[in-house]
Amino acid sequence: MKYSYLTLKHLDSILEIEEESNPFPWTAINFRDCIDRGYYSLALEDENELVGFAIMAISSEESHLLNVGVKKEKRGRGFGEQILNKMFLAAEVMGSKKIILEVRVSNNVAYSLYEKLGFEEISIRRNYYRLPKGREDAFVMSKTLKKGLKSKFFFNA
Ligand SMILES: CC(C)(COP(=O)(O)OP(=O)(O)OC[C@H]1O[C@@H](n2cnc3c(N)ncnc32)[C@H](O)[C@@H]1OP(=O)(O)O)[C@@H](O)C(=O)NCCC(=O)NCCS
Q1: Angle, helices 11-21/28-36, rounded to nearest 10 degrees
Q2: pTM of the predicted model, to two decimals?
Q3: Going from the N-terminus, what domains does the chain have, and what CATH number goes with each?
Q4: Ligand 1 mutation pick, 81, 137, 140, max ligand atoms within 8 A of CB
Q5: CB 145, CB 56: distance < 8 Å
Q6: Which of the ends of the chain has fewer CB neighbours closer than 10 A, N or C?
Q7: CA distance linking residue 91 with residue 59, whole number of Å
Q8: What atom of ligand 1 comes closest to residue 52's alpha carbon?
Q9: Radius of gyration of the chain, Cα coordinates, nearest whole angstrom
Q10: pLDDT higher than threshold 80 for residue 157
Q11: What burial class does residue 132 get, using C-beta atoms within 10 Å of its C-beta: 0-12 exposed, 13-18 middle, 19+ buried?
């Protein structure tokens, strides 16, 4: 298993994961946009096969988890949790105080994962997600990060 930054070479594999995961999947343009904007984006590969990915906009105040996905046949083996823990560590090192995310109200698996990782539901965004027909609400969830990692990492305090 190997982590790397997400690049355009991963695009076809990411789209496959996205299309098997979401009723209204992100497009190549959405992923290219994230890469162009320099969002913190990780790919987890097993012998050059993409197993999972995650994308987060990191900021010193509040980071925003934008997407995470694991290939269907590789789910339930701890990869989602492992990728997200890597993302959170990066946000902590960058001095982020908390992470927020949105999750479809029907997405019980992702909701359980986020709860396990210490997220709490803080609000609902009505009609946030598109569906092939209509729209779906999102829970907004938040997790407070540990303080002090940034100064240890960068300033040896
Ligand atoms: C959500 C997703 C990334 C989880 O990845 P995964 O590798 O299968 O998850 P893990 O094996 O790391 O599981 C970690 C935790 O998630 C929860 N979880 C995972 N699969 C679950 C399932 N089928 N039912 C309920 N909870 C589940 C559990 O809390 C689990 O902890 P446990 O193993 O101690 O019970 C994956 O299901 C996925 O890609 N889904 C489609 C994309 C998606 O929904 N992304 C989130 C958008 S907000």
Answers
A1: 130
A2: 0.95
A3: 2-155 (3.40.630.30)
A4: 81
A5: no
A6: C
A7: 8
A8: 39
A9: 16
A10: no
A11: exposed
pLDDT per position as a tens digit, 87-124: 999 999 999 999 999 999 999 999 999 999 999 999 99
Got the DSSP string for 10-51? GHHHHHHHHHHH-SSPPPHHHHHHHHHTT-EEEEEEETTEEE
Q: Where does ligand 1 bind, in terms of residues with CB under 6 Å?
A: 21, 68-70, 75-81, 103, 107, 109-110, 112-113, 116
CA of 133 to the centre of ligand 1 (A): 25
Tokens of 100: 């927020």
User: How far is residue 153's CA from residue 34's CA, in Å, rounded to a whole number?
Assistant: 26
Q: How confident is the model at residue 156 (pLDDT cuts 50, 70, 90)?
A: low
